[in-house]
């Protein structure tokens, strides 16, 4: 356990440069006293780590010192190639770089662990796009990614889903791959509205041009935290109404299999009735979507409210009967 922590400490200093004892303790979840002892152990082992005193000081390695990737355990070696997503790297314009990085990682591993890593590569494949959906065609994805890496401002022509294209000048902060769809998070440049970052779908960018200007990325921006909160708010905002329905157990199971996970809680909360059916209040996006959703259940679902939705389901059922009666 201590050997693993010493290696982690060494790699933190190698990858990040100067770090204080407090920062190292927070990263490794130990006390600062433990960090002092670990640094002494590294120095005794011949690792050129030294302390800089005063304000802005901390621990750092002698400039130019690098360590090879030794000390990996079996699970860590297995994970080396689980982190590689060739399709995503290629779409970002980094396919060749990822292949080269993987070759270097393999070369740095001991023979036994190299075999394990190669076995994972041969036996695991990630297919990111969802079923029955073609992956997004985002011709300007590489340009957007370059702006993210280099913190450069870009001017884009963007197609909003419900209106004409708009021109935007953006400072891209990060990229997200969601079920085969690429999104990017960006600030308007300059950010005078105070609304903070916004989310854009990369496939809707028709033009992307660099402005030659650079921007400063906010120090407190956390892409993963932003995406989690934005996704939750986005899903909640989709549902504009709630339907009161009676479902048979088969109808509930059918809805569960076809509706988004965000609605599963409403189905789980359904209350049983004496006739064996379940009373549920199910959110829906639009009357058109809800009509199709409940019609597919046939007699296993009965809409009670709203009245307009109930009438639409009745009309759809009658139209179906007329079609087959012909």
From TrEMBL:
It comes from the Bacteria. Keywords: Signal, Transcription, Transcription regulation. One of its GO terms (molecular function) is DNA-binding transcription factor activity. Residues 1-21 form the signal peptide. Residues 2-60 form the HTH deoR-type domain. PROSITE patterns: HTH_DEOR_2, WYL. The keyword Ribonucleoprotein does not apply. The keyword Transcription applies. This is YafY family transcriptional regulator. It comes from Thermobifida halotolerans.
């Amino acid at each position: 356990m201590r050997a693993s922590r010493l290696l982690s400490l060494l790699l933190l200093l190698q990858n990040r440069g100067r770090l204080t004892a407090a920062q190292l303790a927070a990263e490794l979840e130990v006390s600062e006293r433990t960090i002092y002892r670990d640094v002494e152990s590294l120095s005794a082992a011949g690792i050129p780590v030294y302390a800089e005193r005063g304000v802005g000081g901390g621990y750092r390695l002698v400039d130019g010192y690098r360590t090879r990737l030794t000390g990996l355990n079996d699970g860590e070696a297995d994970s080396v190639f689980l982190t590689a997503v060739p399709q995503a790297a290629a779409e970002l314009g980094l396919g060749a770089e990822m292949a080269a990085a993987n070759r270097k990682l393999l070369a740095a591993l001991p023979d036994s662990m190299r075999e394990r890593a190669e076995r994972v590569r041969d036996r695991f494949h990630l297919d990111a796009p969802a079923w029955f959906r073609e992956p997004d065609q985002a011709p300007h994805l590489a340009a957007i990614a370059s702006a993210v890496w280099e913190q450069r401002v870009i001017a884009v022509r963007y197609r909003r889903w419900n209106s004409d294209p708009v021109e935007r000048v953006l400072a891209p902060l990060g990229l997200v791959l969601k079920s085969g769809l690429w999104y990017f998070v960006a600030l308007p440049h300059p950010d005078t509205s105070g609304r903070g970052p916004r989310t854009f779908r990369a496939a809707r960018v028709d033009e992307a041009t660099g402005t030659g200007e650079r921007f400063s990325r906010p120090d407190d921006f956390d892409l993963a935290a932003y995406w989690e909160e934005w996704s939750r708010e986005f899903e909640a905002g989709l549902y504009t109404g709630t339907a009161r329905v009676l479902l048979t157990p088969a109808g509930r199971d059918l809805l569960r299999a076809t509706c988004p996970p965000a609605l599963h809680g409403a189905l789980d909360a359904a209350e049983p009735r004496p006739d064996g059916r379940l009373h549920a209040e199910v959110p829906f996006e639009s009357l058109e979507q809800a009509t199709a959703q409940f019609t597919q259940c046939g007699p296993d679902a009965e809409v009670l409210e709203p009245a307009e939705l109930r009438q639409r389901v009745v009309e759809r059922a009658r139209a179906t009967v007329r079609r087959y009666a012909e």
